[in-house]
């Protein structure tokens, strides 16, 4: 019997995209939801996002770099300026929206990664990659050898990551496995490009979420706001646009 696992990442304070994604995931029958971090900043509803996720049953969340920055403000600006243009820092932090003590206390309880066995499949989740919440996995530049190494480091058959804001599925042949990214569940999440020593905003992509079927490891990605499938074809699971679109 198959099991459906919802996969979220990089919500960045977008409560509207999050609510849409959660509704669709529940409608599709996902009994557990995994979230790969970066819950806050960019959009102004970080507090609402944290409280919504905190209240969700059967949802497992890990820390992203934005939560780390929120919990350690002494290093936050310094860390950001190493990677982004300093003139637009407020864009990344939702106009300075603050979190309540309750939300910060909940964030402080979150782990930096997850390792679990679901339906006989070893699943790991890191925000960016094993041991780093800033060095992401890039679809175009992650070749076969690096894919194998990342799976080995994560001790997993399936590695779930976020951070890049780009949805993808990277196959690993030997040993068999895959690396998955559901994209950003944020309607205004940037995709970044390299500009000299900096990473700078390049384009927006629509808010998305993933559905992982176990033990088959079949993975699909949907747009949160209209339910349109981005990629992946399951013959026994039609596109959900017709039911909620």
Query: What is the CATH-assigned architecture?
Result: 4-Layer Sandwich
Q: Helix and strand string, N-terminal first? A: EHEHEHHHHEEHEEEEEEEEH
Tally of distinct domains = 1
Number of strands: 13
How much of the sequence is in beta strands?
Answer: 25-35%
The total of helices stands at: 8
Shape: globular
Named CATH topology: Purple Acid Phosphatase, chain A, domain 2
| Top CATH class | Alpha Beta
Rg computed from alpha carbons, rounded to a whole number of angstroms: 17 Å
- Euclidean distance between termini CA atoms: 28 Å
Average pLDDT value? 85
Largest sheet, if any? 6 strands, mixed
Main structural class: alpha/beta
Plain-language structure description:
The protein is of the alpha/beta class and 245 residues long. The chain has one domain (3-244): Purple Acid Phosphatase, chain A, domain 2 (4-Layer Sandwich). Helix content is 27%, strand content 28%. It has helices spanning 15-27, 46-55, 65-71, 73-83, 89-92, 101-107, 144-154, 241-244; strands at residues 3-8, 32-35, 59-61, 113-118, 121-126, 158-160, 167-172, 177-182, 190-195, 198-204, 208-214, 218-223, 229-231. A hairpin with a 5-residue loop joins strand 12 and strand 13 (229-231). Helix 3 runs antiparallel to helix 4 (73-83). It is globular, with a radius of gyration of 17 Å. The model is unreliable at 81-96 and 235-245 (pLDDT under 50).
